[in-house]
Amino acid sequence: MVRNASQTVIRISDKNPHLLSFRGKEILLITSAEHYGAVVNGRFDYRKYLDKLAAYRMNYTRIYPGAVALRDGQNRKNDTLGPGEHFITPWARSEVPGYFGGGSKFDLDKWNDVFFTRLDDFLKYAEKLGIFVEICFFNSQHRPSYVYSPLHADANIQGVGCDNHADFETLKDARLVGEQLRFIEKLIVETNKYDNIIYEFCDEPTMDGTKSAEAWKWLDVLIDHAIRVEGRLPKQHLFAQQVMVGVDFSDDDRIAISVGQYAGSGGRQVGGYDALEQFYHREGKPIEMNETVSCLSDPVFYERDVVAASRIEAWEFMVGGGAAFNQLNGCFTVTNPGGDNEENHRILGGLRNLRSFIEAMDYAGMKRDGSIRELSVGGKISGISGGGTYAYYMHHSFHNYRRWRPTHYVPIPGEYETAVTLALEPGEYNVEFIDPADLRVISNTKITSGDGETTVQCPRYRLDIAIKIKKI
Length: 472
Prior knowledge:
Immunoglobulin-like; eight-stranded parallel beta sheet; 2 domains; six-stranded antiparallel beta sheet; TIM Barrel; single chain; alpha/beta
């Protein structure tokens, strides 16, 4: 049996194992979040950030709690994950100068009260706003940024850390592993009282040279340790782990949530629609898409229509049966914690529309749909169904590859009038055709389905369309 969480915290739904629930009610986690440095970057006003999420009914965010940092300006100016000398971590600073990011080195024998006070306030404020927080302990260390981690030998006065960044996610260095386990244990103990958290172990564990078999053994040790730690504490929380080629915990009962990243599979990543196709029915767990390419950042990854491109991946995944979606959003920066610009407001509004579309149905009883038989023209379609209701999302775009993986969709606008052939249950149905951009009902009609296949003719649309079919 898959390890579930305590009754009071966010947990797997008792009604639908593909969904999450909170205090007896099914919930969808949908967001467009900052670059995981909200707590560790002392210059970032996380309250303004959380307020903006809540204003658009976003209820989810991720944080890295101190083991990973980037060079200030490495990805973009004022990135929250590039804190420099303003880096606040679970470890206190020593009196020894020489930290590569500025200031003194870290003392791994002393915990930092400032960090835990800040973390506590962040989680408490998020809980007040109805926002759930995924605490991701580690990310793969990369060659240019590992020196900024407190667990690099040159960053702490104990000299703990591996010579090769690719060995960080392995069991090769016993002293380093010991500190990693202490780090996890301290975070779990300090945050156990909160109901609005999920623990994820490592983001992209083999992205920069770590061998899959070695990363798997390392994660196995981390997971067992976390279970032992929580076993002594009042509350049990959900554990999540990203699925990568060769590092797959999707059929491991200790891991409750299977994680994918980016809009499609390629290289070592498994994400988006492909993750649903591979794991939804096989494992029967909630599936989360917890990272996309960074929207509206510098450089801009999305192409052509940024708002439409970001909408496509979110709608396709969530209307296809996803449990949680996080779009990495470069608009939330140290100098603009509320992400205030017109395009970002449209992106956040689009995700709010997605939530409204799904929540208008009895989605707790709906699962990934298998009734789609044929499209009259090219396009991609995904859907959920149950209780006499069918919901579909269809779009026209292509995957673009960056760094050997299909990271994002490129929209292909046109004049489309697609016919969709479905194997519906016999009966009469009301059909609504909806514009995902603004939830405007384009048209509606009635259809009758017999024992065979039924063809639904869509009205003309430019890029994407949502279809809601409800039995009369």
